[in-house]
Design goal:
By secondary structure, this protein is α+β, with helices and mostly antiparallel strands. It contains 14 helices and 20 strands.
Length: 383
């Protein structure tokens, strides 16, 4: 059975001045602007302007300096936190703590996307040197972890932090010992958790765990499946699609009963996949199973050069008809798979291609920073 455990966290003294979205969400110009706007921001630690031969060394040194200046505050004893994010459209409530790398290896915390060993090994070396996790991964529970607690009573207490960032209000409360023990009892009744994102971060910690023969805790945000939003990605090719490949691909699409359609909302809902090939759109009707797998293994299996060059854009409903994407010769639009299908697939130990799912919420970087810790070191009193 999986378990969420207490973990040590450093939280910024003034979050509004230091936190950020993930580095990959910014262009180079946006990163430069962020660095000017946040002279003490975490961005200067995680993305230093340095030509030093070992960037990881600079990150580690800057992190230690931030601790010494009390820019980030050690919360002392390892703990679990109740975390609430509220915007105009959505509210997410969950728990911040640690989950064991062993639970991922045993499959009691499932993973639904493939990872690349070389990338995981590179990230493992990075983590070994910098010794910090800068952003919790999101982990999904099939039942509500907050059912073992009383959120209304927790929210009556003064929050550890309460602030607004990018039109979202963030509130954090530290759980007391009795609440942690209740949560651990709830954990004992769970058969599975499911990883929502951060597959390579988990793979890197698992690789480091094997390398060091230690069971590390992965920083996580545990959230009930009833509140997540499951979206897909748009896959597209920036290169020009040759006439020969165009004809071959259209032939494959038609072999699966693909038919001409458009991207109008009423039409696109009839298909699991809508494919733009130059000026035409083709819809594949009926159930094709998990659409990302179908695209890679049925439609593009004979086009490795296309697979290698695919680009990805999260499809949250805002980009589906984006003129910028529609300029390209080859674009795949797909329905998101259901939670039930995704969980069942993951429980069987199967993996989807990378960039198959886009699951909300996404966490900000630099709010919950945890040192690399071995599981048994801090959880004895709660096991």
């Amino acid at each position: 059975m999986p378990k969420i455990s207490p973990l040590t966290f450093y939280i910024p003294k003034v979050p509004q001045k230091q936190i950020m979205h993930g580095v990959e969400e910014y262009s180079n110009e946006e990163l430069k602007k962020l660095k000017k706007e946040q002279p003490e921001g975490f961005i200067h630690i995680i993305n230093p302007d340095s030509k030093h031969h070992n960037k990881n060394t600079i990150i580690r040194e800057r992190w230690l300096k931030a601790i010494s200046k009390k820019t980030f505050l050690n919360q002392n004893a390892p703990s679990i936190y109740y975390y609430k994010m509220s915007s105009k459209s959505h509210t997410y409530k969950g728990l911040i703590g640690g989950v064991s790398t062993k639970d991922f290896e045993k499959g009691t915390i499932t993973q639904h996307e493939k990872t690349y060993p070389k990338r995981a090994a590179l990230m493992a070396s990075y983590l070994e040197e910098v010794q910090i996790q800068a952003e919790p991964v999101v982990v999904i529970a099939e039942t509500d972890p907050l059912e073992s607690l009383t959120p209304k009573e927790i929210e009556k207490r003064r929050p550890l932090f309460s602030f607004t960032f990018d039109q979202t209000h963030h509130q954090i409360w530290k759980l007391i010992d009795n609440e942690i023990q209740q949560l651990q009892k709830w954990s004992e009744k769970q058969h599975y958790f499911h990883l929502a994102d951060g597959h390579h971060r988990v793979a890197s910690l698992s690789a480091l765990s094997k390398r060091k023969n230690q069971d590390f805790l992965v920083s996580c945000f545990l959230i009930p499946q009833t509140t997540i939003q499951l979206h897909s990605f748009i896959w597209f090719l920036k290169d020009v699609l040759s006439g020969q490949k165009e004809n071959e691909l259209i032939g494959k699409i038609k072999a699966y009963q693909g038919e001409l359609t458009s991207l109008e909302a009423g039409n696109s809902k009839s298909y699991d996949i809508v494919i733009k090939i130059k000026k035409n759109y083709f819809g594949i009707p009926g159930k094709v199973g998990l659409t990302p797998e179908f695209i890679r293994e049925q439609l593009l299996d004979t086009f490795p050069e296309i697979l290698d060059e695919l680009c990805y854009l999260p499809d949250t409903g805002q980009h589906s008809f984006n003129d910028w994407v529609s300029e390209f010769d080859l674009v795949f639009y797909m329905k998101p798979c259901s939670k039930e299908l995704l969980f069942d697939y993951a429980k069987k130990g199967k993996n989807l291609p990378a960039k198959s799912t886009y699951i909300l919420p996404k966490l900000i970087t630099g709010l919950f920073i945890s040192p690399l810790e071995s599981k048994g070191e801090f959880t004895r009193s709660f096991s």
